[in-house]
Each structure stands twice: as structure tokens, then as C-alpha cells.
What does this fold into?
Amino acid sequence: MNQFKMILRLAWRNLWRNHRRTLIMIAAIVIGAWSMIFMTALMRGMVDDMVADGISVLPGHVQIHHPDYRDDPTIANVIAPPSGELLEALGGAEVVAWATRVRVPAVISSERDTRGVTLVGIEPLRERDISFVAGDVVEGEFLTSPDDRGLVIGRKLVEKLETGLGKRVVVMSQDQENEIADRGFRIVGIFESKLAQYEEGFVFAGETVVQKLLGVGDQISEVAILGSDYRNVETLFRSIEAAAGDGVETLPWNEIDSYLGSMLAVMDGFVIVFIVVVFLALSFGLVNTLVMAVFERVREIGLMLALGMTPRSILGQIVTESVLLLIIGLVIGNVAAIATIEPLKDGIDVSIVGEGMEMMGASSVLYPALYLKDIVMANLIVIILGFFASLSPAWRASKYDPIRAITKV
Amino acid sequence: MSNITFRLAWRNLWRRKRRTWLTVGAMVFSNIILVFLISMQLGMYAMMIENTLRAQTGHLQVQAPGYKDDLKMRQVVPDVIDLAAKLRSEIGSDEIAARASAFALVSSEERSYGLQISGVEPEFETRVSSLPGLVTEGRFLEDAMAEEIVIGSVLARNLRTGLGDELTIIGSGRDGSFAAAVVTVVGVFESGMPDMDRGFAEVPLGFFQDTFYMEGAGHSVVVMAPTLIQVGALGGRVESLLPAGEGLVVHNWDVLLPGLKQAIQADFVSAWFMYGILIILVAFSVLNTQLMSVLERTKEFGITMSLGVTPGRLGRLVLLESGLMGSLGLLLGIVFGGALVAWLGHTGFTYPGLEEMAGQFNLPGRIYPQFSAIGLLMGPMIVLLASVTASIYPAVRLHWLEPVAAMRAAE
It folds into this structure.
């Protein structure tokens, strides 16, 4: 213990013998640590936002469909509403909310224009908990019941169709007998979404009304289920899948939307790659600093060895110096990163490339997301890899022959 | 004289081999990463632009003002076929074609889908779009008046229809009136882009005009330039050839598809953030090395100065040393980075999950980095510049050096 204390003291004093070099090295570590944490938080924030938006807009964490529905999303592929065992599972503690939907391709026409859309028949009260936040409807009102005869459509679609609140539009689709089914709807609500493609592509009507229009009785296209955490849907998925049985297809969100799913998976890998790359760029400087520190102290190290200090203590001393450097740099870097992210918590406006972000599925405001696990990972990677990087110069120092080292000019 | 400075600088570098190699190593490492990533980005962007523009948009489009935002049936280009023909003969290029498009409900015997239908000139569409070449079953359109349709593969599957089957089109015409027609499926295309394969169809332009009461009008004239760089100049020519008084406008691809350019910009900026960090870390490494190397030579510098060497010249020596290290890093970085890029340009680069993500940007699951001078040189040049800049401080310090005090400095 005493010996460790002595080594620590020696290492600390040695660091400040050449304060310029130490400060430059610390500055480099600070910049490295800051960039690791800052960049990770930005990327995490972007992906989280994308996934959260994607999920809130339609999928839900787990969905149940007719086995053919995903390939052929029409009214032909419907399933019975949940009952029995499934209904029981949906009442379970894992499930935060669930809703049924009838979802079919349709054509909507105003007197001015015609568009292809997805018509979604919903249970308004249940849907509220999954995809619609009350604030999304900016004009008029949200549907009140499955029998509601109104239609809720997006702001962008309203503009394209040159229609407005209270006006009538015609929705055409195909019923189960393959006949064209059409019906006039009055627009009762207009919603806004962060993603323009949803504003343009989806219209919402009462589920019962749509079922009647398409002649499917009480059958539905999908059951959407919301769990507590989208990152961890496995348990929820397993229990729902077991209860839903074999006749239907049960899928977690990351398989329904493979783009978002793979994005989240790739992100985890990318964060590690980024941290390691930055560390490697840093490590050259670190090793260089240690090599110089050892080189200019050759005689001193030889003397210490001659006086009876064990090679292990020499090794320990150099490694301690390196770890001290890293710790100082990391602490300042972490504080700096948190200090820069904190004021940005309310979002960074990137609307200048808004449409590009939308193409990636992200919104035009970036919210950095600081995760403890990312901070811990960045710090651990730097300390552990830094420890190994400093072993080589330290090893060389401990292997000096005392006599040669002392007499070195 | 400068020859001596050069020789001194070179020899000074190798007085401390390990230190020099570690500093050069940091440069080479960053350079390889920069060369690889920048070449990768350039390759990806080129492919994104090319694939996306070739599919439908083209490099330039002549449209009625407002059409690109509203896509309204009545925002037309009058006598579109004649205009396209005129542009073709004036510009002397075949890569110009007229189009019209409408949303319509397309029904087979079993199914109906709402989708975008384009009316195209069969003869010229093949020159401006990759779609005709992607027809995997049957053939592309041939006759401008034929009651024929080419549809996407997913749409064909969803409609449960195939070659030779009839489809009914229902929509509204230019004047808002009811438009309907029956067409025969003659071809099915597979573009690999989910949106197109699921919701897009093409019919001959003449037939489209009759069905949707277009009265000879269309919605756009698509123009392809020989290369992306020539788009701007070509746009000017097309603009000067437009009939006066009709208020038609020419849009470049970045206006037609702002998302594409912005996605590239967003990616570019975030990538440069990372590059910047790498470059700064290398610069710190160089600063540290050069500062140490100057400090340990204090005595030596004191002697040379007392012998009459100016501080300015010693400063240049220090800068030259950094420049030499930087050039070595540049050279090795380009060689190794270039080899990596050349190899990946041959085999392609992929990682798990890339395919799903790439599809979003019309990219294949394997990316081929672009082997280009700019991709090879840009990163390493900046690293070299940053290295020399970083050693300005140690070089300038020499001006404050007192020869007598310096000579007494401890080794």
C-alpha cells in the first residue's frame, strides 16, 4: 500500500516536470473524450428520435397481422379482433396500450385533386394512447368513437387537395368482393406530423365506419401493441406471439420497419467504432509522450534500479503516469461534453437540411441524447486501451540494465 | 543554402527515430481513415445521385411554375411533345423526353390501388430513365398511342396481375372531369426501390393525353446532361429555348429533389465533424513532438545562433521538419489508403444492416468507394497543413531565445 502511494506520488510529480508536454497531451485527451461523448449523444439523439417518431406514427412496438398482409396490405387479408387468450395477454402488465386498425390503400379526391393514400380505420380512444398525441390535431377535433363519420387528414394533404376543415372529400377503396367502395367524408380534423410523408400519406376514419364501407364485419387488418421500452420488446413480443397463436403473424417493430431496426443496430456498432478510432488517433500521441518521458529519464531510472527499486515498480510508475494523464483528460473531457450538451437539450435546429433529414427518416430538430452507458463505455475504452498502449514504453524502461543506463550520456 | 536546411531537417528527424515514427504513424493512421472514408462518401454520393436521378427525376425538368410543389393536374406544359422535339433538335441531344402524370385508381379483377401513373414517350423515355431497362418481364412501351401499361413488380403481385391482363384506370382529368380507361399489361419492371415497385406505372404519352383530357399538354420535359457538372450550363440553354410568354420554368435536380442534396449535405457535415477531430488530434501530436524536439535542442540552437544563424532560419528549420514528417505521412497515407480504396473498389464494402439502410437512399447493399484524386488527396493535404500549422508555435518561440542563456541550458 505504501509502495503504491509512493509510486503514485512519483508518477504525479514526474507528470509536472514537463508541464507543457503534459498539458498538450491532456488537451488532446480532452478533445478526444469530448468528441466521443458529444458525437455519440448527437447520433443517439437522432436515431432515438427517428425510431420514436416511426413508432408513434404507426407501427407500435409489436403488431399482429394476417400472414399475407405485409406483402399484400389489402382488405382481403384481415383477421378477427382479439379475443380469448390474446385479449388476456393484451391486458397483461407488459402492455402499455393496444389498438386495432383497419388499414388499406385508398384514393382520396376533393373537387380539385386526387391522391393515393392509406386509409386507416381506428378506435380513436385506444389510438390516442399509441400514435396520436392530442396536440397533433391542430385544427378541428380528433375522432371521438369508432362510429365517428368524420375524417382526420394531414396538413400537407389538405394543401395538396385544396380542401379544408368541414369540407367533403371522397375516399375510394376496394371491398372484400373486389368492388370499388366509395364514401364521402367530412374533414373534422387536421393533424401535423414531424414527418411530411405521414402528413401526406395517411388519413384516419372511424374503424366501424371503414369496416362497414369495406364489408368486413368486425374484422381488422392489425393489432398494434405498445410496450414500455422500444429497445427491449423481446419479452412483450414473446408473450404476445404465444397468445396470438399460429394463424396470424406477430412481429416486433424492428422487423416491420427494417430500416429503423437496422439503423438502431448499426448505431450501437458505429458508436464503438467511432470511439476506438478517436482513441487510436489519440494513442499515438500518448505513447509518444511516454516514450519521451522515459527517454529523458534513462539515467534516473538506471539510478533507481541501482538503488534497489524493482523493475516492477518502474513499470508501475510509467503506467501510473499514463493512467493519471488519461484520468485528468477524461474528467475534463466528460465535464466539457456534458456542459456543451446540456444547453442543447432543447434541440438543435437543422431545418436547413430538413428535407435531407426527412429522407433519412429524422426530423429537422436534433435532440442530443446522453446515455450513461455510452459515457461509461467511452471512458472504459480509453482507460483500458490506454493502459495497454502504455505497457510497451513502460516495459522497456523496466528492462534497462542499471549500469548502462546510468552511464548513458 | 536551402539545401543545407533541408539536409539538417531530414537528419534531425532521424535523431529520434521512435518519436518521428510515432508522429508519422499518427498521420498515416488518420490519413488512411480519411482517404477511405472520403472516397467512400464520394462513391456513395455519386451512386445516390445517379441512381435516384436516373430512375425518374433526370437532371433538369421543364415544368409549369408551382408544379413541383403541388403536382396539380392543371399546372401543365402546353404542347409538350412539340416542345420536347424542339429542345432535342436545338440542343442536339436525344436525352430529352416529355412526360405527364396523374394519380389514379388502378384495378385488376381482384384488387385496386391508388398510384401515380406517368405518360411517357416510349421512344425517348429509354434515353432519360433507367426504368425501361429494368423491365424484367415482357417489354417496355413501344407505341405512343397504344392502350398499354408497364407496372412495378410489387404492384403486379399486389394486383394479382401479369402480362396480357387488363387493368382499369380511374382518375380525374385535367379539367377535373371523370377519366377512365382500360389498358393491357405489357411489361413489369423491378427497380429495387420499394416506392417505385409498389406504386408506379407508365403508359404511352399520347394515350395518357387522350384519357386525361390533356389537350396536347403534359407536365414536364425531362432533360439529362452528359455529366452532372454540365447540368448548370445546359439549364441555361434550355431556359433560352423555352417559348416566351408561357411562364415555364427550368428546375435543376437539387430543386426537384431537395431531400437528396440535403441528405448528402447533412451526411457531409457530420462526417467532417469526425474528420476534424482526427485532424486536430494529429495536430496536437505534432505540436507536442516539435515542442519537445525544440526544447531538448535549446543548447544546440543557442550555439548555432551565437555562430550567426538567425532565429528566422531556425524557425524555418522546425517548420520544414514538420513539413517533412507531414509529407512522409501524406505519402504513406495515400499509398496505404489508396491500396485499401482500390481493393474495396474492386470487391465492394458492406457491413451487417447496411443493405436495409442503403435501400432508403436507392443504394445497393454493397458500396464501392470512388478512386479519385480528390478522395485520395483532400484528407492527407489537410493533415499536412494542420501539422505545419501546429509547429508554428514552437518555431516562433525561437525568436525569444537568448543565445547565451540557451547555451547554458541543461541537456
